Amino acid sequence: MDKNVIPVGPYHPLLEEAEYFTLQVDGETVVDIDLEIGWMHRGHEFISESKTFTQSLYLVERICGICSTSHPLAAVHAMEDVDNIEIPLRARYIRTLVGELERIHSHLLWLGLAGHFIGYDTLWMWAWKYREPVLQMFEIISGNRNHYGMMRVGGVAKDVDPSKVNKLFEVMDEIEKKIEMIAKAATDDPVLKSRLKGVGVLTKKDAIDFCAVGPTARASGVPIDVRKDEPTDAYDLVDFKIIVTENGDVFDKTVVRLLETFESIKICKQCLEKLKTVNGGIRNNVKEISPGEGIGRYEAPRGEVFHYVRTDGTNRPVRHKVRAPSYVNIPTFKASCKGIPVADALITLAAVDPCYCCTERSLKIRDKNNEPYKINLLNLSREKTEQLRRQMK
Amino acid sequence: MHNYNEFISLMGNKIVSKVEKEKRLYFEVENQNIKEVADHLFNKLGCRLSTATATETYRGIEVLYHFSLDKTGEYYCPRVVMKDKKNPKMNSLTPIVRGAEWIEREMSEMLGITFEGHPRPEPLLTGNHPQNIKVPLRKWRSNG
């Protein structure tokens, strides 16, 4: 008997990156999933070898528009690791501030998309509305809403204007209240709970076996976070908690991200407070990097970003390995998607906050009468939410 | 706390050479010992495999695995050097660490390494490519 297969991807305007999944279904149930990457292979590692260290930072910043602090930050950590380069205290707080702002905007972006996928467009609009002030904070700090160009080996490129610190505090206070409101609305909603609880479960064992990172691992009870495990920048100087939950389902992944947003706000406020009093330079003058090897990593919103740099004493890396968190999180679909209904597949795929596009696509599969019919994962997912809503009325 | 001495004494003569830095241990092992070393790191020490890096050097083609011990922030990086650049082969770690599957498939395409015992050695990046892509993708370096 022929297998019923739902292809998802590789290209669709809904999301910005390309990946290809094939869901194998038995009736309404997903029995297996196959994954394929390489649709947008851009050769960053190879290009980096022809760039100077500083040019490499601009390059890796463009790997991902969402993680455009995490990659250069992990890269400078790797370059600094070769020679154990120290960075000034003020620069450490600025790096931490920018990194945490990125986590807030990324988690809000994800929350909005998750709401959209399950038919909660109000949640989507709220989350994106309150993400906007965070982007404006980036503009105040760096001059850019995206691709901030803040990182340098030995420090940061730009200082935070002291006259803007109070304004940044005000924005933080405001978005904190709004996110509290969204979080309460999202986690107390009975339809949302029944739609996300117990869906797409990734067990702790599977998370460890697949070497998952970030909220994907933490929602499955694996307490890993680079910010605590190997604190760099100012993470050992600020107070924050690592959010870990045990169930591994989509609801827990949502909860982890929402609670992490509050921790990030807490960290940002501490950094801003310190920037009022900590003075001094923002960059050590690094003239050269010795021959050697360095590992740099940073806890991006999606999980650990890993960079490895090998140097030979020239002004450019001879090898620059980049591993984004989605590269280890996406294979977990093999475990979390099996046995779930097709209507839950979209939100399960989206729950790890992967970099992919086209999670939904029209296609032909055959029904019980061997007749071809069309299926749309986004509509299917939204219909299920509507059904639950009607039942609960 | 980071102290690699216990690990080094346990592994004994399996470690051919090592470079130790703060929270980083890079060490070379022979191909026949890499599975045992990885098994110890993953199953006994509780390390997580961050990723692996394959590089073509004058000595040959080398694969450097990056195992992270998250409890302490230390990295253990075993390195295998394959001197035969034309036909590099080494043991696959995927049967021990499932998270190694994609990166080993990628390294296989990039540098032509055969990972013996890999459960699914097909191409990861170029499998469905419309053009007839020839692997390894970086072979021109050897020719040059």
Number of helices of chain A: 15
**Biggest protein-protein interface?**
A-B, 31 and 35 residues
Task: Flag low-confidence runs of chain B.
Answer: none
Range of strand content of chain A: 5-15%
Backbone structural class of chain A: alpha+beta
Instruction: Please state the structural category of chain B.
Output: alpha/beta
Percent of residues of chain A in helical segments? Answer: 40-55%
**In total, how many beta strands of chain A?**
10
Extract low-pLDDT stretches of chain A.
Answer: 356-365
Rounded to the nearest angstrom, the distance between the terminal CA atoms of chain B is 46 Å
Sketch the major β-sheet of chain A: 3 strands, antiparallel
Strand order of the largest sheet of chain A: 1-2-3
Which helices and strands occur, and which strands form pairs?
The complex is a heterodimer of chains A (393) and B (144).
Chain A (H helix, E strand, L loop, with lengths): L3 E5 L11 E7 L2 E8 L7 H5 L4 H9 L8 H14 L5 H29 L3 H22 L8 E2 L2 E2 L8 H24 L1 H7 L7 H6 L4 H5 L7 H4 L20 H28 L14 E9 L2 E9 L5 E7 L2 H4 L3 H4 L8 H7 L12 E3 L5 E3 L2 H16 L1
Antiparallel strand pairs in A: 1-2, 2-3, 4-5, 6-7, 7-8, 9-10
Chain B lengths: L4 H7 L3 E7 L2 E6 L4 H11 L3 E9 L4 E9 L4 E9 L6 E3 L9 H11 L2 E3 L23 H4 L1
Parallel strand pairs in B: 2-5, 6-7
Antiparallel strand pairs in B: 1-2, 3-4, 4-5
Could you characterize what this model shows?
The complex is a heterodimer of chains A (about 400) and B (about 140). Chain A has about 400 residues and is an alpha+beta fold. Chain A is built from 15 helices and ten strands. In chain A, strands 1-2-3 form a three-stranded antiparallel sheet, with no helix packed on it. In chain A, strands 6-7-8 form a three-stranded antiparallel sheet. A two-stranded antiparallel sheet of chain A has the order 4-5. In chain A, a hairpin with a 2-residue loop joins strand 2 (about 20-25) and strand 3. The longest helix of chain A is centred in the first third of the chain and has 29 residues, at about 90-115. Chain A is globular. By secondary structure, chain B is an alpha/beta fold. Chain B is about 25% helix and about 30% strand. Chain B is built from four helices and seven strands; from the N terminus they run H-E-E-H-E-E-E-E-H-E-H. Chain B has helices at about 5-10, 35-45, 100-110, 140-144, and strands at about 15-20, 25-30, 50-55, 60-70, 75-80, 90, 115. In chain B, the strands form two sheets. A five-stranded mixed sheet of chain B has the order 1-2-5-4-3. In chain B, helix 3 (about 100-110) links the parallel strand 6 and strand 7 (about 115). The model of chain B has no long low-confidence stretch (mean pLDDT about 90). The chains are: A alpha+beta (about 400), B alpha/beta (about 140).
